[in-house]
Amino acid sequence: MKTIDIFKALSNETRLSMLHWLKEPEKHFPAQGAHIPKGINFVGGVCVGDIQEKAGLSQSTVSSYLNMMQKAGLLESFRYGQWTYYRRNEPFIREFAEQIRTEL
Amino acid sequence: MKTIDIFKALSNETRLSMLHWLKEPEKHFPAQGAHIPKGINFVGGVCVGDIQEKAGLSQSTVSSYLNMMQKAGLLESFRYGQWTYYRRNEPFIREFAEQIRTEL
DNA sequence: ATTATATATCGAGATTTCGCGATAAGTCAA
DNA sequence: TTGACTTATCGCGAAATCTCGATATATAAT
After folding, report:
1. Contact B8 A13 (CB under 8 A)
2. pLDDT for B39-71, tens place per residue?
3. Which of the ends of chain B has fewer CB neighbours closer than 10 A, N or C?
């Protein structure tokens, strides 16, 4: 959650792209949630496999990138069954952007 | 001038501190410009030596950090005599902050 | 010209990051 | 239970970053 860790997470072309793709998941990924039951609400989440395919990097690399971005606070995740869905942590990102605007 | 380079420049504690110190030079550094003639206008600039002392790193490290931040667009420099003064590139920083706010 | 001062550049060792393949762990279906 | 599938973790070599001391360059003073 340190500022430096956020900047580090953003210092990579692929990770930055993933963050952008997740702004419009329906535009960049196949329809999600086929395996999520109706009760669960995790709109905008995309499973690791689809993100990996789009990124064109290995599964392990993408998994750790996503984990890193989550630790930094930029993403949040939800696991259903064997799938893990990631989406943007929008309030956190907005807060970070605002902090940059006022304190950088 | 690429976004990634800006994030990389901001991904280091010392460099981030330098950027903050330069927001209020008079608060963090000795009075500057003793060697600058009246005609020159470079308000807010601080010479490398004073930044180095404050940072507590080697002269070479600080010099290259400052150069890196300038290349990224965050700082601008002015050389007078044997001194090089650095200051924040405020318009660029504001523009970057705005870009983060709207595009991140 | 010589010397002193401020900054930039170079070369190097230590640490970190990048991205991979292999493997482990968790979950589901049969 | 076995097998298939999705994701996470581990270990690794390559590349980048960190930070330093030594040295080069530029300017100023004597």
Report:
1. no
2. 667 788 999 999 999 999 999 999 999 999 999
3. N
Confidence of residue A38 (pLDDT cuts 50, 70, 90): low
Q: Is A68 exposed, middle or buried (0-12, 13-18, 19+ CB in 10 A)?
A: middle
Q: Nearest nucleotide to B48 by CA–C1' distance?
A: C7
Mark yes or no for CB contact A104/B98 under 8 Å. no
At residue A35, the pLDDT reads 72
Confirm whether any atom of chain C, the nucleic acid strand, is less than 7 Å from CB of A11: yes
Are residues B102 and B95 in contact, defined by beta-carbon separation less than 8 angstroms? no
pLDDT at A44: 84
Per-residue CA distances from B80 to A32, B47, B50, B70 (Å): 60, 10, 15, 17
Following DSSP, what letter does each residue of A5-24 receive, concatenated?
A: HHHHHTSSHHHHHHHHHTTS
CATH architecture of B3-103: Orthogonal Bundle (1.10)
- Strand C-proximal residues of B, range 73-92, CB below 7 A, are 77, 79, 82-85
